[in-house]
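Thought: the user wants the 3D structure for the chain below. I'll pass the sequence to the structure tool as-is, report back what it returns, then summarize two notable features.
Action: structure_tool
Action Input:
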Amino acid sequence: MLFDIRSYGALVGRLIVPSFILPAAAPLIYAVVIDRIGNAGALYLSTGIACVTLLAAGVLWVLFPGGETRSVAEPMPGKPVERSQRGTL
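Observation:
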């Protein structure tokens, strides 16, 4: 089992919190940048964020080459199949 049923909600909650906080803070951050530096500063900030995102995607592409996906029903490579799973693949 990948996640325990009892702790799944708390785990997903901790993982998803940044996806709520950062978009909520973006208008304030951009307002401050535009007020202090100007429109060019906001453009540079957006360009920097885009470059960091592209770099992160490139790192993931290098670390996980091939882009192969596996079905949820398939066992992890190198992990023995449990007796109850043998007939379900």
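Final Answer: Structure generated. The chain has two helices and no strands. The helical segments are 8-36, 39-63.
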